[in-house]
# Entry
Amino acid sequence: MFGPEQGHFALALACVLALIQFVVPLWGAHKRNARLVAMAPFLAVSQLFALAISFFSLIICAVRDDFSVQNVAANSAASKPLLYKITGVWGNHEGSVLLWTLILGVCGAAVSTFGRNLPDILRGRVLAVLGGVSAGFQLFCLLTSDPFDRVFPAPMDGQGMNPLLQDPGLAFHPPILYTGYVGFAVPFAFAVAALLEGRVDAAWGRWVRPWAVAAWCFLTCGIALGSWWSYYVLGWGGYWFWDPVENASLIPWLTGTALVHSAIVVEKREGLKIWTVLLAIATFSFSLSGTFLVRSGILNSVHAFANDPARGVFILALLALVIGGSLALFAWRAPSLTSGGLFSPVSREGSLVLNNILLCSICAVVVTGTMYPPFMQLLAGRTISVGKPFFDAATIPLTIPLLLAMGVGTALPWKRAQLARTFSHLFVAAILAAIGLVLCFWKFSGALPIACGALAIWVMAASVTDVLRRIGLGHSSRSEMLARAKSLPRSSWGAALAHIGAGITVLGLCGMSGAQHAIVEIHVGETRSLAGDDWTLVNVHDYAGPNYRAMQADIAVRHNGKLVTMLHPEKRDFTTQNQTTTEVAIHTNFITDLYGVVGDRHGTGADATYVLRLHKNPLAPWMWLGGLVMAIGGAFSLSDRRLRVGAPKRSAARTMAKA
Amino acid sequence: MTRKTRRLWIVIACLACISSAAALTLRAFSSNIVFFMAPSQVKAHPPAPDRTIRLGGMVVAGSLHRITEHDAPVNSFNVTDGQASVEVHYTGILPDLFREGQSVVALGTVQKDGGFTASEVLAKHDETYMPKEVAEELKRTGKWDPRFGKAPDAASWDTMTAKKTGG
# Structure
């Protein structure tokens, strides 16, 4: 049981089940045959079961050091710690495709389990679309990137894993990020099902929104985790490099954020229906192309095709089928969707429209910046690259009106707003933002960080004062306020939290723009000052780790003569892989990070000098903390009672939030 | 507010955002695009001193020197594409994957004296130990054709480049 052949067979079985799941419910829905449609949930659950067996088999192969399996031999080694043997399963192309389909299977099973209050036909169609996507990627896995391929003769030991990737942060980053990517398959399936049905109404908005929010939470966490990983592992003091792999996760996040907001309008006011359907399709399309085109390097380098032409052609055909097919369906059916309620430009709907336009503009800029270099290479043969200066110059000016609108939007009522009243609601927040602006002038340097920092405070202040106003601060008794706070919908609390999280992240980014660093080469015992602190290299010693040799430096950081912390950065030499890694030492008090890296040693004995890289990063932890707060806000809004109405026993929303 | 005026408002907002996004993108492109150049291209057509470029090639074996200037380590090394070599100065810690005789990509500006001041040195590479730009450049200059076997290993590059720059 659970050998590679069993895993392979289970994968093939899952593929067949997915194909049936694709065809039968669609046919049943077309013929109005309730029994065929009702097969979908059963098929989705059994497909997940088969996939779980397949994935578990691959893990077992890796744990047992079965080097006759090509994938294990190429990516594992007998000496690797058990945790990384397991997490290494999804650290390579084949394994990650398998993980991708497994998560898609989980999504299908979740829809069939928690979607019991959906109309049968809609649920059948949603599951059919998910099954179709699943089948495509399982075929891709089976035909071009089979993780269960055997090698003969089996090597004695595997080739090992990049030591850089042997890190707990990175071990759990891919599954969370993938859950975010794949999670958007559910809103996509709902959109396609709605197009097939030719009807989008408030109920559709209410069903689709929790799935979009759940996927958005995971994507937010995944991006934050990835950025944190590059900050503390790569040792450059940077947190975001604007490289295609990172942009591939940011693009669906931007459209996904727009989707989460526009679905509110569908739900509350039956407006923006066609647009929401298009956003659901676009978000999943970006997730798909992000994971597969950019990650597999097809667009990045032309000769990725040459390495494995079958893989490239297959994935392009599959993407064309999924994206092109859904867009064609959209073009055909969307005009039949009727548009909903009227609203004035200055209203909650109006602000959400503005939010969507701005988010999509930012997304368009990021897409252009990411795709332009590879296309220039393909068409003109010139190798160019665009980096941080481009993205900063092009996205920040669009972010400023977005932040401004975030504060105003929550204070506006639906349908039509009275300007005078809105301004009186926002008065306190505006004063706080003005105080924030003064603070930012004092703390930050540069026009953009100051402006963005003040706007971040504006967003947070507007969210807090909005909640306070709604629970009646100032004109009701304490018990009344408590009662109002309890009856305020959880989605309002969630939205406020998510906006506060966004503000925290922006403040962190502004703080980081004032980060200072120095690269010094000093003897043991010498002291250098950076940004008001004195950094002393106290001692350097060597020691042997389990599979590496390390050089550890002890750095004392003093502020006005008082010891703040001791930092112990290391440089590790992995002899078997002939690779060195840098272990960064970080001391944080959640306001400022002190960040130390030790480089090369030059000379010997008492005369030896050491290269040190010292950073002082103000507000750095806030960037990721804000991401976490945003995700918590999303999870909070998932637990809203409104989403549980009609759901039997256990709530879809709550269990999803836990998952 | 009728449906028509609402649509007009939305269209105006869309146009405003999209056009400002396009303007910002074009403006940022015109000043921030970074071209990749090989040492021979830098020698033939030196870019303006304020223009950031990516310089890529192989680190000439035995060319790495290190001096300390104002407490800061300054690394100098030569980068070659087999036709010309450029001296690179970099203040900072060289990446863990940096090796003499292997490929490297440096981000920075060309100085008036023909030297190159790097603000960032990248030695990220794939399993052929070569960044894709460097591989492309080697193919272009005819030093390596992937159709006729693997990339030349570091040892053979050492001799190829040493002859060129040492002579």
Summary: Residues 1-32 of chain B form one domain.
